């Protein structure tokens, strides 16, 4: 019966380690398979994978441009024209159920593309000025939810 104390790997599934420096008869004695002299024969020798022999390395030759803000908030966007699918209350859960957003973890922003005729109460993380005007013009309201990780949470 196989139990934890007698588990063994399948025969031939694991290669034996190379035993170097064990005399001339082993085939890996004396220089231990490192050849003669040189940087790679020394202990701690060799060069990093990106080293190019002193030539200006690729990552320093290529120009760097722009700026990536590490604190940027990426929103899932929903347009005003799609809010009629949800009904009278648009929360992240309702938008997810209607297939308008993918995740409940990422904040939701409503943008002003399209028109709206029905009153919809929106509880989202952000809304553009145009979207807010169209929603409130149709008799709805916009309530902003706090972002995750915001102060006070």
What is the makeup of the main sheet?
A: 3 strands, parallel
**Cα-to-Cα separation, first versus last residue:** 54 Å
Given helix and strand content, the structural type is: alpha/beta
Number of strands: 6
Low-confidence stretches: none
Q: Give the spatial strand order of the biggest sheet.
A: 1-3-5
Please tell me how large the radius of gyration is: 32 Å
User: Which geometry do the CA atoms define?
Assistant: elongated
Percent of sequence in beta strands = 5-15%
Number of helices: 3
Helix content: 10-25%
Spell out the helices and strands N to C: HEEHEEEHE
Considering the chains and any ligands shown, give keywords for the structure:
3 helices, single chain, alpha/beta, 153 residues, three-stranded parallel sheet
């Amino acid at each position: 019966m196989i139990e934890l104390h007698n588990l063994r790997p399948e025969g031939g599934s694991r290669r034996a380690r190379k035993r170097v420096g064990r005399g001339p008869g082993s085939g890996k004695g004396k220089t231990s398979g490192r050849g003669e002299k040189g940087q790679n024969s020394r202990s701690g020798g060799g060069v990093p994978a990106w080293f190019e022999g002193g030539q200006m390395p690729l990552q320093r030759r290529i120009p760097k441009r722009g700026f990536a803000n590490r604190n940027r908030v990426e929103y899932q966007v929903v347009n005003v024209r799609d809010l009629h699918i949800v009904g009278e209350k648009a929360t992240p859960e309702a938008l997810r159920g209607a297939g308008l957003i993918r995740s409940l973890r990422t904040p939701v922003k409503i943008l002003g593309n399209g028109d709206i005729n029905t009153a919809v109460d929106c509880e989202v993380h952000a809304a553009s000025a145009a979207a807010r005007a169209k929603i409130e013009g149709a008799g709805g309201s916009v309530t902003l939810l706090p972002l995750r990780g915001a102060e006070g949470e």
